[in-house]
Design a protein that fits this description.
- The protein has eight helices and eight strands.
- The protein is of the alpha/beta class and 220 residues long.
- The chain has one domain: 2-Layer Sandwich (Nucleotidyltransferase, domain 5), CATH 3.30.420.10.
- Strands 1, 2, 3, 4, 5 and 7 form a six-stranded mixed beta sheet that branches. Strands 6-8 form a two-stranded antiparallel sheet.
- InterPro entries: DnaQ (IPR006054), Ribonucl_H (IPR013520), RNaseH-like_sf (IPR012337), RNaseH_sf (IPR036397).
């Protein structure tokens, strides 16, 4: 394998952020993907990307959503779950084009930090799509709401986003749709920030210390 060129998503906007920066002074890009299945490290592909941003502790109005043509059939059970069919993605951009559009949204919004619910899954899905096109990419800091919830409620071991949103009293949007799940995660994150502040956890360093995803990721 060879790398045709370097492919950088956000112009390293978070590279020099002081770790003592208050979380409410940062812009978080909250993202989610829908895929053809759960084996995103091998055969499964992205079929939708959705994102929104949290700035000054509030969810912003400008959002991002695109379907993605996976160049393979979408299983019936995934269509039933997400509402996304082969017809839905027939005229959609291919994965690299869709990811580039997503990165442009991140850069335009100056999204310092990425954040997701079970973010490792969505990061892997994006990494594998980029790897298939033989590109190299540097990822920014990415935090996971599951880690933050684990700190606030150690007894919780579920992954279900809707259950957590209900427990923390935050808004719930369309489930198993990338933008809907990103918005649900963003509003949940705002509630988590409030509870973390009550415990004296207010800075980027605090969030990184809590989260197990503390380093920028490089795909080789």
């Amino acid at each position: 394998m060879f790398w045709r060129k370097s492919f950088v998503p956000t112009a390293q906007t978070n590279k020099d952020i002081p770790l003592n920066t208050p979380a409410t002074n940062l812009t978080f890009t909250v993202f989610d993907t829908e895929t053809t299945g759960f084996a995103v490290g091998s055969q499964d592909r992205i079929i939708e990307i959705g994102a929104c941003q949290v700035k000054n502790g509030k969810v912003q109005e400008k959002t991002f959503q695109t379907y993605v043509n996976p160049k393979r059939d979408i299983p019936p059970e995934i269509t039933e779950l997400t509402g996304i069919s082969n017809v839905t993605v027939e005229q959609a951009p291919h994965s690299l084009e869709a990811i580039q559009d997503f990165f442009q949204y991140v850069e335009e919004g100056q999204g310092d930090i990425w954040l997701g619910h079970y973010a490792s899954f969505d990061l892997l899905a994006i990494k594998k799509e980029i790897q298939r096109h033989q590109y190299r990419i540097d990822f920014p800091i990415c935090l996971d709401t599951l880690d933050l919830i684990g700190y606030l409620s150690p007894a919780q071991h579920m992954l279900d986003l809707e259950i957590y949103a209900s427990q923390f009293g935050s808004r719930i949007y369309d489930r198993h749709q990338a933008l809907g799940d990103a918005l649900t995660t963003a509003h949940l994150f705002c509630e988590l920030l409030y509870h973390l502040e009550e415990r004296g956890k207010t800075t980027l360093f605090d969030l990184m210390e809590i989260s197990r995803i503390t380093k920028r990721h490089t795909l080789f």
